[in-house]
Amino acid sequence: MTTVAPAPPRLSAPDAHRLAAKVAADMFQCSLLYGEPGEDAIDQNRLELVTFLVEGLVDRYEFGFVNRSHQRVVSWHYRVTAAGDLLSDRPGGLCSTADLADTALFNLLWPTAAWFELSEREQQALLAASHLERRLVAPPHDGEGTWVDQRTYVAGATALRRSEFGPH
Fold first, then answer.
1. Local structure of residue 110 (DSSP, 8 states)
2. Phi and psi at residue 32, in whole multiples of 5°?
3. Residue 37: is the preceding peptide bond cis (ω within 30°)?
4. Which residues have CB under 8 Å from 34's CB, separation 6+?
5. What Å distances lie between residue 13 and 54, 56, 95, 109, 151, CA to CA?
6. Rounded distance, CA 74 to CA 60, Å?
7. How far is the C-alpha of 43 from the C-alpha of 82, rounded, in Å?
8. Cβ neighbours for 58, distance < 8 A, ≥ 6 positions apart
9. What is the CA radius of gyration of the chain?
10. Residue 125 class from Cβ within 10 Å (0-12 exposed, 13-18 middle, 19+ buried)?
């Protein structure tokens, strides 16, 4: 059974844009290193993340590459937390040594409890506005590699803590 986190405080639109831009910068570096995701997908994911952050609907967010066994090869995972006294890091510094032969890009969003309190019509409207196809699916399993806590992105009272899975 999936555990659903309580809704974090809603972010102001400017703070949500700041945080989503950091994730988009990571996606852009991933694209430069590995050829995916494409520019349109990065922009759509950024806009979706802004909406979900403003509405307090995202607990965790992850993108990366999986092999045919549905195992992570390289991945970046973000958890929404309270910022406290944290300072914001710069985006980037992604693993550049993963072998992505025979892999596929994945992108997941874990909703907060607030998502499930929305009507189906409200959920569908939010999903349609993002132009992304989202389904609740099981995350991939860890492949050969390790998780490393790397960076924290802060805007207002909210932080995104980034962890990276890869061949460290």
1. E
2. -65, -40
3. yes
4. 65, 74, 98, 100
5. 6, 11, 30, 19, 22
6. 17
7. 25
8. 49, 52, 80, 109, 110, 111, 112
9. 15
10. exposed
37 token code pair: 């995701």
Kind and range of the H or E element at 117? helix 113-117
Q: Which residue has the higher pLDDT, 135 or 66?
A: 66
Q: What is the tens place of the pLDDT at every residue in 8-57?
A: 567 899 999 999 999 999 999 999 999 999 999 999 999 999 999 999 99
* CA angle, 10 then 12 then 13, to 5°: 120
Instruction: Spell out the domains of the chain, with CATH numbers in brackets.
Output: 13-89+100-166 (3.30.900.10)
Condensed to tens digits (0 to 9), the pLDDT of residues 126-165 reads: 888 877 777 667 899 999 999 999 999 999 889 999 999 9
Tokens of 124: 């569908």
